[in-house]
Write a structure and sequence with these properties.
Residues 2-105 form the Ig-like domain. The chain has strands at residues 2-6, 10-12, 19-21, 23-27, 31-38, 44-50, 56-58, 63-68, 73-78, 87-95, 103-110. By secondary structure, the chain is mostly beta strands. The strands form 3 sheets. A 5-stranded mixed beta sheet has the order 2-11-10-5-6, with no helix packed on it. It has a 4-stranded antiparallel beta sheet with strand order 3-9-8-7, with no helix packed on it. The protein is 0% helix and 57% strand.
Length: 111
């Protein structure tokens, strides 16, 4: 069994300031963790993923996320927000056991 919780349903930031979108997970097995982004009028796009190894994952457009097992967190960050980052962001988890289903939650970033 696994789940993710995004702690902020909507985040408003100004251009040029740091971005933090929080995601906590629960998983019975070592998880695979993902962040997806959906820009207005576009399809879902993979932003970054963690499967194993290096805990700091760099994604597209300057986003990164750090896997913290002790805090069961995979927060998405960006050093400096840009107006083009306005979108809906989804944190997802799936166990490394292939028979189990994953869960997808959503977080909206507005400017």
């Amino acid at each position: 069994a696994q789940s993710v919780t995004q702690l902020d349903s909507q985040v408003s930031v100004s251009e040029g300031v740091p971005v933090l979108l929080r995601c906590n997970y629960s998983s019975s097995f070592p998880p695979n963790l993902f962040w997806y982004v959906q820009y207005p009028n576009q399809g879902l796009q993979l932003l970054l993923k963690y499967t194993s190894g290096t805990t700091l994952v760099k994604g597209i457009n300057g986003f990164e996320a750090e896997f913290k097992k002790s805090e069961t967190s995979f927060h998405l960050t960006k050093a400096s927000a840009h107006v083009s980052d306005a979108a809906e962001y989804f944190c997802a988890v799936n166990d490394t056991v292939p028979e189990t289903a994953g869960q997808l939650n959503t977080n909206l970033l507005r400017y």
